[in-house]
């Protein structure tokens, strides 16, 4: 979808602003606490993206009636990775 690149650019810019704000803190303890919170949020984003990838793989597999092996080849990843992503598709925190 055309807006995906713009959305990702906005997200990257927001991340850069957050890191700049953390680095600008005069109190190093506060900077550390803020950086820790940002790291936790980043891990939440990574986990949510992995679940979204798994849901997308499931949709592709069903729509194209592919085996796990065929889907892995189509996506350029191992069968094990496809299975990992597809097994963890529950929606998490938003």
Labels describing this entry:
single chain; 94 residues; mainly alpha; 4 helices; 0% strand; elongated
Describe the structure.
With 94 residues, this protein is an all-alpha fold. The protein has one domain. Helix content is 81%, strand content 0%. The chain is built from four helices and no strands. The two termini are 21 Å apart. The mean pLDDT is 92.
Write the layout of secondary structure elements.
Blueprint: H1 3-24, H2 28-64, H3 68-75, H4 79-87
What is the C-alpha radius of gyration, as a whole number of Å? 18 Å
Q: What average pLDDT do the residues reach?
A: 92
Q: End-to-end span in angstroms?
A: 21 Å
Quickly count the helices. 4
- Domains, number: 1
Strand tally is 0
- Give the low-confidence spans: none
Order of helices and strands: HHHH
Q: Which class best fits the helix and strand makeup?
A: mainly alpha
Question: Which range does the strand content fall in?
Answer: under 5%
Overall outline? elongated
Q: Share of helix among residues?
A: over 70%
Characterize the biggest β-sheet: none
């Amino acid at each position: 979808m055309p807006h995906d690149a713009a959305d990702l650019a906005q997200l990257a810019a927001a991340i850069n602003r957050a890191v700049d704000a953390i680095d600008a803190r005069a109190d190093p303890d506060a900077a550390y606490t803020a950086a820790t919170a940002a790291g936790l949020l980043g891990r939440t984003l990574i986990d949510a993206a992995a679940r979204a990838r798994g849901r997308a793989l499931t949709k592709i597999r069903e729509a194209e009636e592919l085996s796990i092996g065929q889907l892995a080849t189509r996506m350029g990843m191992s069968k094990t990775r496809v299975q990992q992503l597809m097994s963890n598709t529950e929606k998490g925190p938003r």
